[in-house]
């Protein structure tokens, strides 16, 4: 069990150097520029990051292509790839507290959540995909006599992975581990405000025996490094988690360059629906509060729209308000903290502006609605609930990506479905009911890639996370993720 003293001992550990990892070498930016990195915990300095350039991306892609073409990884025996990926998982587990604390200092996630969601999830993900290289097979087609039809499954080549700042280690591993397991080389752009844990992950992967050039890291701004990756003619696939605006630009970059495949996870405005037959409403309220306020709402699948049947609306709001106001918001390196910091000052200002907009739209502020703990120098916002939210308002339609919950009542199942499906997104949803038939009807009716029933959060790597509508395409997690990192090749062989 992790003790507070273990965490405190790592609070001031020196972060990784401000260098890229390219072809197995740690290199400064091509023009030598760096950017100061600050912690959302207290606004203090947290080292610096190399400011990547298009030339740095060129160098990383060239290193990845060389590594792929010469077969040092792509043609390595599947059992050998498997052993190395298992060693990666072992090292992540061995350094889990170091990785978690480093990530928390960088992006403000509360340590109690980070331990599970970051190194805990990353190690499980690497271990899951470590088992796939010698188990994913090609096919023999049913052909006429005298003909043999073979279907080969091959790695795509060079994968560009652009990672978000909310859970960089977890989401980064969802993309890096299956790409490596399939035999690809990878170029990673970590998030500008939370690069450190991914840089350390790359060090551990090389310590585990990953050959030089197979995993490369280029830090820097999305407008420079991300754009260069999107436009690069020698990247075969780009995978991205982040905003819809950036996702659209990546599709445009692909069209303007080599028509590379682009897979996007673009967040959502996920409905969490509570029926009056949900049974234990106190439990539903507690879990629903965590579904939006853990990691201060900076979760792609956050249950940010709460839809409550009118017959239990007021008592449920009372229970929800009590749970919310009891949450401990504060220093994310304290094990008692239940909601940490907003990841950056810019994101904090964005969330506060959306709170002001919700007030102007006439929503009833139930609790929160303000920046707190400003004396720390960090970026903290009180968990905020708005009630009687207009389903067509900005607060109900747009992703806030902060600790802000929009609550709307509904009358019956038909209205609940209509409200749930009333946004352009379709990433996740929740349904609370003791009626099994209703649960299955809702699963079928809600347009979303993930449906929780009588819970919210927690699906492991065995099931896919996929977006419907403007929440994206393709899948992270599960065996289905390998489809993004492989391509099919058919052979038609005459035997006579």
Write a brief structural summary.
The protein has 496 residues and is α/β, with parallel strands linked by helices.
Features:
Aldehyde Dehydrogenase, Chain A, domain 2, Aldehyde Dehydrogenase, Chain A, domain 1, 5-stranded parallel beta sheet, 37% helix, 496 residues, alpha/beta
Strand content: 15-25%
CATH class of the largest domain: Alpha Beta
Using only C-alpha atoms, the radius of gyration works out to: 23 Å
Structural class: alpha/beta
| Distance between the amino and carboxyl termini | 66 Å
The CATH topology of the largest domain comes to Aldehyde Dehydrogenase, Chain A, domain 1
Report the total helices: 15
The shape, in one word, is: globular
Total number of domains = 2
Mean pLDDT rating: 97
Q: Please count the beta strands (DSSP E, at least 2 residues each).
A: 23
Low-confidence stretches: none
In the CATH hierarchy, what is the superfamily of the largest domain? Aldehyde Dehydrogenase, Chain A, domain 1
Main-sheet strand order equals 14-17-18-13-12-19-20
In helices, the fraction of residues equals 25-40%
Assign the CATH architecture of the largest domain: 3-Layer(aba) Sandwich
């Amino acid at each position: 069990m992790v003790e507070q003293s273990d965490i405190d001992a790592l609070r001031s550990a020196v972060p990784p150097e401000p260098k890229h990892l390219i072809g197995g070498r740690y290199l400064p930016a091509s023009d030598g520029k760096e950017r100061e990195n600050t912690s959302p915990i207290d606004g203090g300095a947290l080292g610096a990051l190399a400011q990547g350039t298009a030339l740095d991306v060129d160098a990383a892609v060239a290193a990845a292509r060389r590594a792929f073409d010469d077969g040092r990884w792509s043609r390595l025996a599947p059992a050998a790839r498997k052993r190395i990926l298992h060693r990666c998982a072992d090292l992540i587990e061995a350094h889990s507290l170091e990785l978690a604390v480093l990530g928390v200092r960088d992006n403000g996630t509360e340590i109690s959540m980070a331990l599970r969601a970051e190194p805990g999830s990353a190690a499980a993900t690497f271990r899951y995909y470590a088992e796939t290289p010698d188990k994913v097979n090609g096919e023999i087609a049913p052909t006429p006599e005298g003909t043999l039809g073979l279907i080969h499954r091959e790695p795509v080549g060079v994968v560009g992975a652009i990672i978000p700042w909310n859970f960089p280690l977890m989401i980064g591993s969802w993309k890096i581990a299956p790409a490596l397991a399939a035999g690809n080389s990878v170029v990673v752009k970590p998030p500008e405000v939370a690069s450190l844990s991914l840089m350390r992950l790359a060090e551990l992967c090389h310590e585990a025996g990953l050959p030089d050039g197979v995993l490369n890291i280029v830090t820097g701004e999305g407008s420079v490094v991300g754009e260069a990756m999107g436009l690069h003619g020698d990247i075969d696939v780009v995978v991205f988690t982040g905003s819809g605006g950036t996702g659209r630009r990546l599709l445009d970059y692909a069209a303007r360059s080599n028509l590379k495949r682009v897979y996007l996870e673009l967040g959502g405005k996920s409905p969490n629906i509570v029926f009056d037959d949900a049974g234990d409403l106190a439990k539903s309220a507690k879990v629903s509060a965590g579904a939006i306020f853990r990691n201060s709402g900076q979760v792609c699948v956050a249950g940010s729209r709460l839809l409550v049947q009118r017959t239990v609306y007021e008592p449920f709001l009372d229970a929800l308000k009590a749970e919310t106001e009891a949450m401990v918001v504060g220093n994310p390196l304290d094990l008692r903290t239940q909601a940490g910091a907003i990841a950056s000052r810019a994101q904090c200002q964005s969330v506060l502006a959306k709170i002001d907009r919700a007030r102007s739209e006439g929503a009833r502020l139930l609790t929160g609605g303000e920046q707190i703990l400003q004396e720390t120098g960090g970026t903290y916002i009180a968990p905020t609930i708005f009630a009687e939210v207009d389903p067509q308002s900005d607060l109900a339609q747009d992703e806030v990506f902060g600790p802000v919950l929009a609550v709307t009542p509904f009358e019956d199942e038909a209205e609940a479905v209509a409200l749930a499906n009333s946004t352009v997104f379709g990433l996740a949803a929740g349904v609370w009911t003791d009626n099994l038939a209703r649960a299955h009807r809702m699963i079928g009716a809600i347009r979303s890639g993930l449906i929780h029933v009588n819970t919210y959060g927690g699906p492991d790597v065995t099931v896919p996370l996929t977006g419907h509508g403007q929440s994206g395409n393709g899948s992270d997690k599960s065996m289905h993720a390998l489809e993004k990192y492989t391509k099919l090749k058919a052979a038609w062989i005459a035997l006579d």
